[in-house]
Design a protein that fits this description.
Shape: rod-shaped
Strand content: under 5%
Number of domains: 1
Radius of gyration: 28 Å
Number of strands: 0
Helix content: over 70%
Length: 84
């Protein structure tokens, strides 16, 4: 009788551990997806900031010296624009 009780308790503990592991794995996947989405959005916002800052500088430089050649800024190209 005690062995069946212990078997039942062990089975219940194993089931609870399995459910916790599944929930944790699901949460890790969700957090990983959120991380990469945030990193992508950060890159897009940084590119927009650099682009607006570069256009502001280009306007300032054009007013200061119209004949000054400039190197175009390196710009991040979002994947969404490539798919279109």
């Amino acid at each position: 009788m005690t062995s069946w009780f212990m078997t039942g308790v062990a089975l219940a503990v194993a089931l609870m551990a399995w459910l916790v592991a599944r929930r944790t794995a699901r949460r890790v996947a969700e957090l990983s997806e959120m991380y990469w989405e945030l990193k992508y959005q950060h890159g897009e916002l940084r590119a927009q900031l650099l682009q607006s800052d570069g256009s502001r500088r280009a306007t300032d430089e054009a007013v200061a010296s119209p004949a000054a050649p400039g190197k175009p800024p390196d710009v991040f190209v979002p994947l969404a624009s490539l798919k279109r």
